[in-house]
Amino acid sequence: MSGIVTNDDFLRLMGDPEPAMLGALVSLYEIGCLVGALMTGSISDRYGRKATIRIGCSILLVGAILQTATNGFALSISSRIITGIGNGMNTATVPVFQSEISPPQSRGAHICFECCLLVVGIGIAYWLEFGLYYVDGDIAWRFPLAFQAFFGVILLAGTFILPETPRWLVAHGHHQDAKQVLADLWTDGNIKAERCLAEFNEIKEAIEYEQAATQHSASSYRALFNQTNRSRVCLGMLSQMIQQLSGINVTTYYLANVFLQAGLSRAMAMMLAGIDSIVYFIGSLLPIYLTERVGRRKIMLWGLVGQMITLVCIGGCQKAGIDYNQGTWTAAGGSQGAVVMTMMYNFVFGASWLGMAWLYPAEIFSTGLRAKGNSLSTAANWMGNFVVAEMAPIMFASMGYWTYVFFAGLNLLFIPLVYFLYPETQGLSLEQIEQLFTATHHHTSPYKASNTTTNTNTDEEKSF
């Protein structure tokens, strides 16, 4: 939206709104996403993961059409909220779908690949903004708004090809369908294969145990906050809040400002923003390979360290650039250094918390609570996004480059939280993760539990 809300033609159509109104136009999208995420839990559990994604895509497409056809501020802001609701439903459901349909040895890679594609979308948006910078008329802002529907159509079409998740099918008594999905995914359609039957029995036993233990109320929101599950809710929501409070939105929303402070033209700043998205994308590729090899905890911890260091460097370089321009610092290049370190920060974030914040909540809840638990975690993500978007302009106005140091300090505070609270889930099936958190609940430290849980996956499963 950064290129759209600065387009003269768009601003005239909106009635030249005040900056606060433009800020509301941008940030209320996050509120729509939050609402959509909270809606998802009950819908997903009742109608299925695929149906929920279809509903989300349909709402998103309606919002995209209304945004493209807008004729004033009221329609623009309402259509942004509608689009946000659809996107919020999808961001809460797609990781659940992936976690429930993926083998343990590749579950992390699959969800991280989704996050990699998020960066592709960001890159497309930056390059569209750069290309349309040279275009006059309303096509310069209507086309990007319409283009978002393209990906919604692809995802919607995909739901008619992809299967429902076997865990949802088992939970709703569709045992034969669940076996067929497992067979199609893992054993070339052989429903009698040992691997297929073993996985089906493990899923069935875990779900039956869960439903019996909770007297058939496993899928209620109340169950999320009982003594056994509330720690998982806290970990899921905390992981998403850490992602948003780690500084990513500060570097993203003010990327163009960093480039302009380096003395670059607006066109060059927009082009470098596109190049930055390529660096971001390269970073996001690493977890696809590393997540199931080094584990979630190490990526989380080293990501926080790298983000902290690069944020301090951004603030320091900006200070050096300001002092040089004022004649109180003799070495040039501070502002240019801020550009490089901003790209380095995005690389580190892409290689760590971009994917981990979406992966961890999607795999730590039991089947009956996964959709609702992940909906709360996703809502926390969008709430954090909204809060940072509202706070950042105030912080930059009052603190300047110290804003980056502040967020670096938050990364430092998050390190012990991750180290002491987050068990490792690498290589475990969703049912084994359930056992892991049960052990953690019974007075076993997360760190010890994550290092003593036995991985009993078969060699056939490990081949995926």
TrEMBL record:
Gene3D superfamilies in alphabetical order: MFS general substrate transporter like domains (1.20.1250.20)
Organism per entry: Lichtheimia ornata
Family: Belongs to the major facilitator superfamily. Sugar transporter (TC 2.A.1.1) family.
Residues annotated as transmembrane: 20-39, 51-69, 109-128, 140-162, 267-287, 299-317, 338-360, 401-422
A Pfam family: Sugar_tr
Keyword field contains Chloroplast: no
Membrane topology classification: Multi-pass membrane protein
Name under which the protein is recorded: Major facilitator superfamily (MFS) profile domain-containing protein
Major subcellular location class: membrane
Key words, A-Z: Membrane, Transmembrane, Transmembrane helix, Transport
GO molecular-function terms, A-Z: carbohydrate:proton symporter activity
PANTHER family: MAJOR FACILITATOR SUPERFAMILY (MFS) PROFILE DOMAIN-CONTAINING PROTEIN-RELATED (PTHR48022:SF28), PLASTIDIC GLUCOSE TRANSPORTER 4 (PTHR48022)
Domain Major facilitator superfamily (MFS) profile: 1-426
